[in-house]
Amino acid sequence: MPDAAHALAASLAPLLTGRVCVVGVGNRLAGDDAAGPAVIDALRGSAAADCLDAGDAPENFLGKILALAPDTLLIVDAVCMGGAPGEVRVLDPDRLDGAGISTHALSLDVACRYLRARREMRIRIVGIQPAAADQGAPLSEAARAAVRLVADALRAVPPRS
Q: Is residue 151 within a helix (H) or strand (E), and if so which, with residue range?
């Protein structure tokens, strides 16, 4: 495993206990905004977690997430963090103000508060800094590398018993 994936896996490992759900969020037709769903594609059949592609409407998946009853929820999304394109950060939704972070109808911080009000769970956002989110554009090389990095790190999570 490359060093960056190993470091990301090590930072995620303490969070990924019990039942884990990974939700990819983003618009597949808008360049790097598709990074979240691309991670879910990369994980299909190879992750020890429940994986959901919520597309650009994560609010439509809140009931499904609650039904899965995860101990940990990871939301993978393109997030404007002011970093270099393709940079990956694990973010605590409690430390987000909701402004300017997401392009989705229901902001991720509101979705996280809704979920936590109904079930105790650890929630983190795995943010991938987009290079561009132009309509009709493919994922940039930086986002593709970040998708591989995140998928490799999540595959390193041991299967739940």
A: helix 141-155
pTM metric for this prediction: 0.89
Q: What kind and span of H or E run contains 9?
A: helix 3-12
User: Distance between CA atoms of 30 and 117, rounded to whole angstroms?
Assistant: 32
β-sheet bridge partners, residue 126: 76, 90
Any idea where the domains of the chain sit in the sequence? 3-155
CATH of domain 3-155: 3.40.50.1450
Written as one letter, the residue type at 103 is T
Where would I find the H helices in 18-140?
35-43, 62-68, 108-118
Residue 46 corresponds to which amino acid?
S
> At residue 1, does pLDDT exceed 60?
no
